[in-house]
Amino acid sequence: MRIAISVDDHLDINKVDESELIPRQAELLVKQGVDLYLNAGDTYNDFGKTLAYFRRLQEALGTAAQVRFIAGNHDLVNGISYEEAQSAADPLYLHEKSLSLPGSETVVIGNNGWYDYSLAEPPQRSDAAYATWKRAYWIDGQIPQPVSDCERMARVLSTTEQALIAAHGKKVLYLTHFVPHPAYIYFTGHRMWQMATALMGSAQLGALLAKYGVWAAAFGHLHKRDTPWQLDGVTYYHQPVGYGMRRRFEWQSHDFFTEWEKTLVILDV
């Protein structure tokens, strides 16, 4: 079975025409023999638009391939409440769900993820300081949330562990949006980035994946492309599409589809 994974497509920010993109994506996925297309979040700045897009892509693929997605922080800014984000909002939405792959011992576990400030660049600030900075300067400050960041991350860890226990003896592919291992965090000394690193993910998640012998994990959020990296026995895949804006240009070409195809992670299981 062949799996393709993408993350950080940012279709609205990158000004992509969906009507032109979807047929090309479907054609390439079918040509590549992909059975399951996974997306690890940050598709639109609105969950409703994100969901509508993946429904259209699934419709274009028909029975040739399945589509599943989770939400990144951008997807959660508009169009969904905290409670809805934790629910089975749609069959294509993989957050807090597991998907057993037919003809394989592989199980895909999906979880949006979050952060608990454990990846913050020194010097460490208080939780209150990070939360205040987030509300003032970071897009996540617009996301409705009745719990603290650390409480939200605690739920991620709890539901992830439950899913890993249920998948005992299986080959687990873990899909999340936020950074799961401190090795990926780079330090610059810039005050804004020092604060932003606190909102990248959680070191506790990587420790949990290692504890349960997870085979592989894919994530995004950091907008820095890396080759596959094995850390603590887990192979991590981090290949975000990222931004193709004049103000922030992270591509190697000037065409979204080229970047999407180039950054696809292809796994055969």
UniProtKB/TrEMBL annotation:
<protein>
    <submittedName>
        <fullName>Metallophosphoesterase</fullName>
    </submittedName>
</protein>
<feature type="domain" description="Calcineurin-like phosphoesterase">
    <location>
        <begin position="29"/>
        <end position="224"/>
    </location>
</feature>
<dbReference type="Pfam" id="PF00149">
    <property type="entry name" value="Metallophos"/>
</dbReference>
<dbReference type="InterPro" id="IPR004843">
    <property type="entry name" value="Calcineurin-like_PHP"/>
</dbReference>
<dbReference type="InterPro" id="IPR029052">
    <property type="entry name" value="Metallo-depent_PP-like"/>
</dbReference>
<dbReference type="InterPro" id="IPR022302">
    <property type="entry name" value="Phosphoesterase_putative"/>
</dbReference>
